Amino acid sequence: MGRGRAKAKQTKVARQLKYTNHSIDYDRLREELGADAHSEEIYPPTASEQESERAQ
Question: What is the pLDDT of residues 31-40, one digit of tens each?
Answer without folding.
Answer: 898 876 555 5
